[in-house]
Amino acid sequence: MEYITEPARRARITNTCDVLVAGGGVAGIAAALAAARGGASVILLEREYTLGGMATLGLVTIYLPLDDGAGRQVVFGIGEELLKLSIAHGAEANYPSAWLDGGTLDERVKNRYVTQFNPHLFALRAEKLLTDAGVTILYGTLAAGAVKREDAITHIITENKSGRGAIAVKSVIDCTGDADVCALAGAKTVKHAKGNALASWYYYYSKGAVALKMFGLADVVPDGGGGLAAAVPDDTSYDNEMVESLDNGFRFSGVDGAELSRAVIAAHQRMYGDIAGARGADDTYVPVTISSIPLVRMSRRLAGVSTPDVDGDRRFVPDSIGMTGDWRRRGPVFEVPFGALYSSDIKNLLAAGRAISVTDALWDVTRVIPPCAVTGEAAGTAAALYIDKEDCDGFASLDIAELQNKLISQGVAIHYERT
Q1: What CA–CA distance (Å, rounded) separates 304 from 345?
Q2: Beta partners for residue 172, in sequence order
Q3: Which domains does the chain have, with CATH numbers?
Q4: How far apart are CA 149 and CA 399, in angstroms?
């Protein structure tokens, strides 16, 4: 490879904040909201011009279960708050009546706490929720670098229409989904072994109705049971269509710029063929909106102090910051350790959402909306606590009991037996 050396340049300090959240997906929304409610000054960076990430721009509009599949709710707090927000103007499908309208245990067992929401309304409502809480949102802004003093981040370098700048920070939460800030700051990261398959979901209009088509990889589990079939009872239908994976053996890492472009183009061309084929049989069939970001599921994550695995089902975790069920099947519940959110490399950096430290097997469980909200809320709450601890030498020395008590006061369930 050939290289050039860029000239040295100064970056103007444009902002200062207690907590900088990089990435405005569900994890970033939860982290920013929790930190702001905890009294911190918060800046949220989002490279696009809409909040929600995969849930809105990716059109992955299934709010997967908040329960264990046996009628017990395990995700509370901001995770449940955002579900209710997503359907504040009505669910697109599968309104969770058994959970929101006082259903019986048998009804909750039959109907998991899952819903489908409108991505545009959710994004707009989330934006208002954050601005009302005092969060400063910087759209079109990328975290392009990290400045450190010893083992702590002092500034995040940003790029946007104003050019290159710097934000002075007390702590940072990486909610990019790809552990971008972790990598930029020099924290150890790990890539997913199998990579990602092609997908490009879209909404279409046909015969007087608008529907979602989960085109490409649609979370089909290996035993042949669809992700949605696992999430809802057999007699409940989303009235959506699903096709098999488009990849034909191709996988992309999700963290290479040229590779991502090739993957998106390939998915777009196959989606166009799908639309053209549908129009051949139905001249009212037209696309309404398509995924505007790559549908990356598992790419790069933090290598944290703890790396939980699927063998932790219903296992008591002393430093748990919340729980998640398994969207793919009924029964499993995983407590998430705080140690999965930070590493020993950078003392004032946390990860949330898809970027937390888990094995590849558990990654498929923790990458979806409910656990992203759980880890986001925990990270934001921890960051707000951290700014007031003059004697706290990084997140590794944060008082776990204090953090857990704060989360419990916010309605979060920490351990399975306490739900």
Answers
A1: 9
A2: 20, 349
A3: 13-193+299-418 (3.50.50.60), 202-290 (no CATH)
A4: 24
